[in-house]
Backbone:
């Protein structure tokens, strides 16, 4: 496991360094409210990132997560406004709708055999258009209505300062990690991503595995949506736009490689917190928008490049070590 | 190491869970008002609500517009800066909402955490910003909205002309068409109060006084010139006779004007705001008119309200409705263009 | 007691040409049975039928005396047949035990019982004395260790028969010894091994019996005492064929030296490689899998770096960059024609143009007319069929594809052509055409280095044959009437009377007498 542990250490170290940089060069970073704020910001991205981690470990990708959140949120807002359904039912529907979106994604990828990039790009458009189908309209014009159901609004709330969404994120992250490391499904997820042909030969149904990870992601998007509308109290038509990239960045920074077979939820959690710290810190400097975007982009690219270089370096070292050992064992043939 | 990390995570989760048992779950505003209502809890901004002198103590005011690149937003910021610049104890920071509800909420959160003394907000979405406005007010930070309101009670709103603008434009169109004709509307981003109000005023007057004027269609141009251009082109292809267009802001009117020009059609085009570019268009005859708001004065007014509210104890708690100050509407057409002097242009 | 496995009168044809003609093959329980034969003799086809990858056309398979049908991989596995392939198929980021138990984990409600798995795997490891730990991550293991994991996999499935295909190809001497120890242990446990290899000394050391296939027929089944390398080689090649294909144009050249390689070394791959190539000479390079021929050529050409040594071309040191070498008149036709030789989707014309842009393009722009002319010229010169230079190379037959690849280089007026396995997978008729092209080239002054595993080909075309073995030059044939046996023996480390050249380092005379060398 040595490479995995090193990678974890590096992720955590990057996070700590980033936090220290921000802490010392701006004021108000290391206060309790700010830290709790960061933990809140990272949670929605984080919850979805758990699912997307599974997808990326299978060497797949999901570009539709933001649109799923947008669609499910709008659906719930609509139901709450037009039919005044009870909060519990709406939350159930939210999770169900997200899961159905995941089922659709998995179907297109495994049964229709569309490559994942194109498939989820297409479903992204589909889900985004559903947002407009369900948008609340008055006299034919889309308007946004406040959500007033306290059962929903409480989901945006906190306990002694710790936000519900943060608690949920950590709990789900633990569950995700356990699934990856301790269950058959987890092993199959790694196998499918590292060497699909091999996995097939070993009797693993890789199609089902890939389908499953999309369903899990959809399910998590449904959960994330509940917290999103709980916090904001309404659903706009552009809610969730661009969210998929934040999620993917968090997953990759946390150590999952696009080539599959590598990474875990601990890393992803670190990655999500990293993204939130980055966003939070940049805002503290009060820079113009352009500068903000540049800094954010540069840091993310640097992390991803570093990740790729590090992986290559480790592979080389491993092969070197292996051939050295082979030589020590008595001269190459 | 794997096992240790696992158990660490589990312990963490349990600890958090136990904490949960101790307090009840509260929404942001509940938590904030509790903290503010209690005494001397250092982390939340109790000082902002009472006891601070706006003109002598160190004050932080933040301005969060929908999009900073907007000429309106620039004019507002100018107005605020020129006013607040007179007071050396005031730090004034401008942010960028990036036209995103999420971003605005994040920045609101940040300002609340950093103990800003007042916030001037242009809400991307009325419902979407309601929660954070509540939270700020509950923490004792007065929120003054500028032009685009948040759907909740707060310290103040300095509104640009909206309902009246719609009404006035309806009058002008109705008269010039002799009570009969066809109009289309290119509206704002759904959920913006200003757009909703302009629409309301416009339709009210038409219904009452000019019932024979038909509204053919209404589509959103999202406040943007390019989008309005596309929408206008659509309208021109779909409908044979369009007599007039109402655009909820100048940027969109400019876009519609280009479309009409390209199609070689003579149509009355009305906007709202009164930005410099629009005035040029009116001069060139590409647009018919607009309803001018002195944005710099509007910005200054917002800033004045902040200074008014800081230290006075005025927050949403003591209000039953948001106090509103409306800017004076000045209908500007080619005839009275000269009324808008150089220094009034923005 | 019935034989564990009996394959009776197995027949198989591809596209009408018979590959297996009533082959008989049997394996007893607890025996190590070697399977040998030249390329094309039918070994891999036979094994693929046994493991359910190909269906057979005729014959019957018996397992423990009962007739069985093996139609899918799963059938073979459920009978208890396991295979260790050359390309290993493990999951690098998982541990040894996870890999071994992949697809067959013991689990409850989806949770894997890691403890039980570890017990089982660790138990097997201990029993066989493998040098791996159950919880090591596979990607940190050497190739030898990974191979043992593959063996573990087969064992964990309670295989009674394990097939190993050239298992020592990438192993060191010490690792090979370890493998032999494992095979011994397997035999003691009553597990049979089918051992496919070209390495005579290994076969001699390990096997209880040896089956030699030739031309799709079981040529002989020898018991341990009957295994004499020279005889085996003769059986693999066949007397008449051997006579008919003996070389008759071996000679030393007195033309000027064009390429001079001195003490070329690459750690762990080859060392002390020295040879000379003359103008207009065709030199064949022979050797078994893993001898290092392709690696040496790639280093000379500039595709891979080497550690030390000199390469001189026409008296001047050779550049290490491919583009420079191409400009100097070098050409390289790789073994993996499909992936490295041509671009299948592009037309013949475009493929030819790829190596010629120094003359076909100016200032970044392509001279379309010149390109076209060259394409048509090459198609005619090499008689590529169909004769249309616009056809994508991927659509041509194997032989014509190879011609297209050659066209890339011939269009340049080469000084030195290195070609690796020139006629692999090409039918007899096309083979001849390719040889003619090569001979033509040599007549016109081009030097040709031909790496090949096809003994007939080497003998037919080469003027000299250099034999490499385990990263070194073992010997050289430059005169006389040499047969396929001579070459094959040399490849296996045995010098026959026809060979020239001193005894290579570390090896001694005929292997059969000593029964095992240091690898």
Residues:
């Amino acid at each position: 496991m040595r490479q995995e542990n090193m990678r974890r250490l590096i992720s955590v170290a990057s996070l700590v360094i980033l936090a220290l940089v921000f802490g010392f060069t701006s004021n108000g970073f290391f206060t309790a409210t700010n830290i709790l704020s960061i933990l809140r910001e990272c949670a929605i991205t984080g919850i979805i990132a758990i699912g997307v981690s599974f997808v990326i470990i299978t060497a797949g990708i999901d570009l539709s997560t933001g649109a799923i959140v947008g669609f499910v949120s709008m659906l719930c807002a609509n139901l709450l406004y037009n039919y005044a359904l009870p909060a519990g039912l709406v939350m159930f529907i939210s999770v169900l709708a997200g899961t159905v979106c995941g089922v659709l994604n998995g179907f297109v990828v495994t049964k229709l055999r569309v490559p994942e990039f194109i498939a989820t790009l297409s479903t992204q458009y589909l889900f985004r258009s559903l947002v407009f189908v369900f948008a609340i309209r008055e006299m034919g014009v889309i308007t946004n209505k406040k959500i007033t159901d306290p059962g929903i609004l409480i989901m945006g709330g906190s306990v002694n300062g710790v936000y519900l969404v943060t608690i949920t994120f950590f709990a789900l992250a633990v569950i995700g990690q356990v699934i990856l490391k301790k269950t058959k499904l987890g092993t199959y997820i790694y196998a499918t991503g590292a060497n699909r042909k091999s996995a097939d030969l070993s009797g693993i149904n890789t199609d089902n595995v890939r389908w499953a990870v999309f369903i899990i992601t959809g399910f998590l998007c449904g959960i994330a949506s509940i917290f999103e509308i709980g916090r904001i109290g309404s659903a706009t038509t552009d809610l969730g736009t661009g969210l998929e990239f934040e999620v993917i960045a968090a997953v990759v920074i946390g150590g999952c490689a696009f080539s599959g077979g590598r990474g875990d939820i601990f890393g992803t959690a670190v990655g999500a917190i990293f993204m939130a710290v980055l966003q939070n810190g940049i805002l503290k400097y009060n820079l113009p928008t352009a500068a903000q975007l540049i800094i954010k982009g540069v840091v993310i690219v640097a992390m991803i490049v570093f990740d790729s270089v590090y992986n290559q370096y480790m592979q080389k070292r491993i092969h070197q070590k292996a051939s050295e050992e082979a030589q020590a064992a008595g001269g190459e043939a | 190491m794997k096992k240790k990390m696992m158990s660490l995570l589990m312990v963490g989760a349990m600890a958090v869970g136990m904490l949960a048992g101790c307090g009840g779950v509260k929404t942001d505003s509940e938590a904030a008002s509790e903290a503010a209502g209690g005494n001397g809890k250092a982390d939340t901004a109790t000082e902002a609500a009472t006891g601070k002198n706006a003109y002598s103590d160190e004050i932080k005011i933040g301005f969060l517009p929908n999009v900073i690149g907007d000429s309106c937003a620039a004019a507002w910021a100018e107005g605020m800066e020129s006013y607040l610049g007179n007071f050396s104890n005031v730090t004034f920071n401008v942010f960028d909402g990036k036209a995103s509800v999420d971003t605005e909420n994040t920045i609101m959160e940040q300002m609340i955490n950093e103990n800003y003394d007042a916030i001037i907000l242009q809400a991307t979405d009325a419902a979407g910003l309601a929660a954070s406005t509540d939270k700020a007010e509950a923490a004792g930070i007065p929120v003054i909205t500028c032009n685009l309101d948040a759907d909740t009670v707060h310290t103040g709103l300095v509104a640009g002309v909206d309902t009246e603008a719609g009404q006035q434009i309806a009058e002008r169109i109705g008269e010039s068409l002799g009570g009969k004709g066809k109009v289309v509307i290119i509206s704002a981003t759904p959920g913006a109060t200003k757009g909703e109000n302009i629409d309301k005023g416009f339709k009210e007057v038409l219904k009452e006084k000019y019932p024979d004027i038909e509204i053919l269609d209404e589509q959103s141009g999202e406040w943007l010139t390019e989008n309005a251009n596309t929408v206008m082109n659509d309208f021109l292809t779909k409908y044979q006779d369009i007599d007039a267009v109402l655009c909820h802001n100048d940027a969109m009117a400019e876009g519609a004007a280009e479309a009409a020009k390209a199609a070689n059609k003579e149509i009355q085009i009305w906007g709202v705001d009164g930005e410099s570019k629009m005035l040029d268009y009116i001069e060139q005859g590409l647009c018919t008119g607009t309803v001018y708001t002195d944005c710099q004065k509007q910005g200054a007014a917002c800033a004045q309200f902040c200074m008014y509210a800081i230290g006075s104890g005025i927050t949403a708690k003591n209000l039953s409705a948001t106090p509103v100050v409306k800017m004076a509407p000045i209908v500007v057409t080619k005839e009275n263009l000269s009324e808008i002097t150089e220094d009034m242009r923005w | 007691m019935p034989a564990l496995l009996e394959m009776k009168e197995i027949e198989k044809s591809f596209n009408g040409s018979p590959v297996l003609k009533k082959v008989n093959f049997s394996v007893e329980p607890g025996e190590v049975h070697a399977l040998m034969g030249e390329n094309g003799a039918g070994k891999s086809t036979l094994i693929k039928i046994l493991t359910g990858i190909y269906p057979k056309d005729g014959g019957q398979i018996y397992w423990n005396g009962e007739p069985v049908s093996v139609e899918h991989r799963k059938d073979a596995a459920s009978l208890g047949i396991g295979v260790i392939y050359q390309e290993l198929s493990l999951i690098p980021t998982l541990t040894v035990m996870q890999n071994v138990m992949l697809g067959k984990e013991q689990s409850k409600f989806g949770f894997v019982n890691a403890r039980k798995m570890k017990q089982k795997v660790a138990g097997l490891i201990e029993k066989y004395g493998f040098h791996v730990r159950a919880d090591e991550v596979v990607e940190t293991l050497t190739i030898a260790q990974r191979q043992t994991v593959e063996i573990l996999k087969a064992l964990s499935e309670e295989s009674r028969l394990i097939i190993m295909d050239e298992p020592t190809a990438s192993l060191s001497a010490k690792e090979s010894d370890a493998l032999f120890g494992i095979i011994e242990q397997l035999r003691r446990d009553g597990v049979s091994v089918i051992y496919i290899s070209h390495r005579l000394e290994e076969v001699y050391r390990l096997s209880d019996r040896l089956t030699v296939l030739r031309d799709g027929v079981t040529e002989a089944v020898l018991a341990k005492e009957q295994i004499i390398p020279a005889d085996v080689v003769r059986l693999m090649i066949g007397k008449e064929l051997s006579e008919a294909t003996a070389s008759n144009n071996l000679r030393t050249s007195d033309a000027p030296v064009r390429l001079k390689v001195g003490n070329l070394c690459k750690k762990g791959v080859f060392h002390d490689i020295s040879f000379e190539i003359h103008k207009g000479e065709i030199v064949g390079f022979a050797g078994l899998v893993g001898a290092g021929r392709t690696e040496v050529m790639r280093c000379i050409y500039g595709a891979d770096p080497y550690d030390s040594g000199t390469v001189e071309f026409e008296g001047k040191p050779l550049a290490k960059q491919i583009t420079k070498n191409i400009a100097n008149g070098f050409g390289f036709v790789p073994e993996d024609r499909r992936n490295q030789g041509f671009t299948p989707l592009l037309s013949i014309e475009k493929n030819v143009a790829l190596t010629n842009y120094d003359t076909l393009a100016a200032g970044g722009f392509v001279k379309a007319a010149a390109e076209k002319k060259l394409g048509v010229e090459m198609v005619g010169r090499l008689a590529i069929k169909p004769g249309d230079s616009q056809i994508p190379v991927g659509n041509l037959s194997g032989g014509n594809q190879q011609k297209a690849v050659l066209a890339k280089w011939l269009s340049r007026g080469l000084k030195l052509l290195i070609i690796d396995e020139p006629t692999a997978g090409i039918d007899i008729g096309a083979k001849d055409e390719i040889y003619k092209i090569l001979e033509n080239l040599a007549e016109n002054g081009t030097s040709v280095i031909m790496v090949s595993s096809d003994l007939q080909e080497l003998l037919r075309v080469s003027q000299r044959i250099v034999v490499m073995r385990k990263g070194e030059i073992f010997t050289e044939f430059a005169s006389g009437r040499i047969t396929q046996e001579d070459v094959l023996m040399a490849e296996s480390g045995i010098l026959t009377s026809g060979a020239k050249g001193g005894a290579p380092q570390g090896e001694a005379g005929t292997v059969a007498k000593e029964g095992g060398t240091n690898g």
